[in-house]
Design brief:
single chain; mainly alpha; globular; 19 helices
Length: 446
């Protein structure tokens, strides 16, 4: 539904093609960097720091952390929007009962992760298996009901002028198609906990290929059952409504139950990841050292408490702003762009310089091409994100300047050089503009 709301079937195909190629090259870059730079724990931010300095490393860590905990807020909204199918009091996931119950779940997950990362990972494995069954049933049922005439009806959206040009439609799909892959670098983020370093890269690539196949099938098969305007009009979770139209009411029950399990597992994963990024950053001096504190179970207690409190604050904000799942998704996706761009750029820098490729010229050419495509894809995403969401991200990035200053002060280092001073001035200027536009309603949060 999120994609169909702004794109036709043809534009969706192009959007998935661009996303598939771009994310696959980025996954290969992560795999290459995990193998060639095994000493860099923390992944997405560690690569930016190693390649482009402390400030870029901090910005990537800060942006990825923002994306992680805002993503958790969006999951909470989606979860209770799904439960709204069974209990209407939860509405679209942003009603008062929904926010109260989401807050209770948030703190339950918080104390579960405090008990230890391994215990949380085991529960996530169970939820991953459980959520696959409804997805497979959905794909098979919708494929059997697929109608080519429905799929090709107004293939390029020419009959719906509100969609805009094909290029506009493709751009509008990018934040959604990127969003579903955010987390593909999760194995890199927690790489310090891996038993074997090669497992990090292997897990990243295999996860992406599996997820890509499922997402493309779910999206494109659906367009053969309902046309674009019909899909665009559905409520979340739209897959439940689609399967109900194909097999009857039990289909909606199956999808909704599966989605609850799925989002619970995703929430648990991202609670771990949201705590892991500032924890690793604290250990390496990018964040203040107190972020690196652990409890007796080896869980990053300070960073976990900070992440959980921020999610709680935003749950309260979405109640008063009536923010939707898609609005939160767009903000979280835009926040992740900086670490993605710099990860690709670091892979490109290593290949251009020949670092770690002294006796592997053919491998160097392959990795150079992959990193170039990944970097160009990242820059395309920044363009596709749009000015509104980039301004919102600037507003969220700006408090990080104080955290960076405190971290540098703690380690007896110079706060900012001239280039960094110019960058922070530009960031603060964009943040002020974003705040003004949010206050006057020019940039809505719903």
């Amino acid at each position: 539904q999120n994609i169909a709301a702004s794109a036709s079937a043809g534009a969706t195909l192009i959007g998935w093609l661009i996303t598939g190629v771009g994310m696959l090259t980025l996954a290969f870059v992560f795999q290459t960097l995990a193998n060639r730079k095994p000493e860099l724990d923390g992944g997405v931010y560690a690569y930016a720091k190693a390649g482009f300095g402390d400030y870029m490393g901090f910005s990537s860590a800060w942006g990825y952390w923002i994306s992680a905990w805002i993503g958790n807020v969006s999951y909470m909204v989606l979860l209770f929007s799904t439960l709204g199918y069974f209990f209407p009091v939860f509405g679209e996931g942003n009603t008062l009962p929904a926010v109260i119950c989401a807050s209770a779940l948030l703190w339950l997950l918080h104390f579960l992760v405090l008990r230890g990362i391994k215990e949380a990972a085991f529960i996530n494995t169970i939820t991953t298996i459980a959520k696959m069954v409804p997805l497979i049933v959905f794909c098979v049922a919708v494929l059997l009901a697929f109608n080519m005439e429905t799929f090709t009806l107004d293939l390029w959206g020419q009959g719906s002028p509100e969609l805009g040009s094909v290029m506009d439609q493709v751009k509008s799909t990018m934040k959604v198609t990127l969003w579903v892959f955010i987390g593909i670098e999760g194995a890199v983020v927690v790489s310090a906990r891996a038993r074997h370093r090669k497992d990090v890269g292997r897990a990243t690539v295999l996860a992406l290929l599996g997820a890509l196949a499922l997402y493309v099938m779910v999206t494109l098969f659906s367009l053969g059952v309902m046309n674009q305007p019909q899909l665009a009009a559905l409520k979340n979770p739209s897959t439940a409504m689609i399967l109900e139209a194909v097999v009857g009411p039990w289909g909606a029950w199956l999808i909704n139950i599966g989605l609850v399990i799925s989002v619970m597992g995703a929430l648990l994963s991202w609670t771990v990841l949201a705590a892991e990024v500032p924890y690793i950053a604290g250990k390496t001096g990018v964040f203040p050292a107190w972020f690196a504190k652990e409890n007796k179970n080896g869980s990053p207690k300070v960073s976990l408490w900070c992440s959980t409190c921020l999610v709680q604050i935003f749950l309260i904000i979405i109640y008063f702003q009536s923010s939707t799942y898609l609005a939160l998704v767009n903000i979280a996706t835009s926040a992740a762009l900086v670490p993605y761009v710099f990860s690709g750029a670091y892979g490109l820098k290593l290949a251009l310089q020949g670092t770690t490729y002294e006796h592997q010229p053919h491998q160097r050419k392959r990795d150079l091409l992959l990193a170039l495509v990944a970097t160009v894809y990242g820059c395309w995403l920044v363009y596709a994100a749009g000015v509104e969401y980039l301004l919102l991200v600037a507003l969220l990035y700006s408090p990080g300047i104080f955290i960076y200053w405190k971290a540098r002060q703690h380690h007896g280092l110079r706060s900012l050089n001239r280039l960094e001073q110019g960058m922070t001035a530009a960031l603060l200027g964009c943040a002020v503009l974003a705040f003004y536009k949010v206050m006057d309603g020019t940039i809505p949060l719903h």
